[in-house]
Write a structure and sequence with these properties.
Elements (H helix, E strand, L loop, with lengths): L6 H11 L2 E3 H8 L3 H9 L7 E2 L5 E4 L2 H15 L3 H20 L9
Antiparallel strand pairs: 1-3, 2-3
Helix pairs in contact: 4-5
């Protein structure tokens, strides 16, 4: 029937809705090619992608922020890819530790 939804499109929409982004969308969002994306994967700037049962390459939605930060560090500060990976890991660790601190601190004397 012509009005029935395509089950593959439903599954892909559900998958992408649940926090995944396609490789094409990720590259398009930041204006990079698949080669640079591979460099970022190689240096653990972002984690390797998953492949859907339909063969579509997808990344967790969190990859967008980490990739953006990595690209800015490379472009603005000219940090090499290995250094960027370390900076991003340390930044995430600092954020984790800060989240453990109590929200109210006693006043300084």
């Amino acid at each position: 029937m012509p009005n029935d939804p395509d089950p593959i499109e439903e599954v892909m929409a559900e998958l992408l809705h649940e926090g995944w982004i396609t490789q094409e969308d990720l590259c398009g969002r930041w204006g990079i090619g698949p080669e640079l994306l591979e460099v970022c994967i190689h240096w653990d700037i972002i984690h390797p992608p998953q492949t859907t049962p339909q063969g579509m390459t997808v990344f967790p939605h969190q990859a967008m922020h980490r990739l953006c930060c990595g690209l800015r560090l490379h472009r603005d500060l000219e940090i090499n890819w290995a250094g960027i990976s370390i900076v991003l890991d340390l930044t995430e660790r600092i954020e984790e530790l800060e989240s453990l601190l109590p929200t109210s601190r006693p006043p300084l004397e």
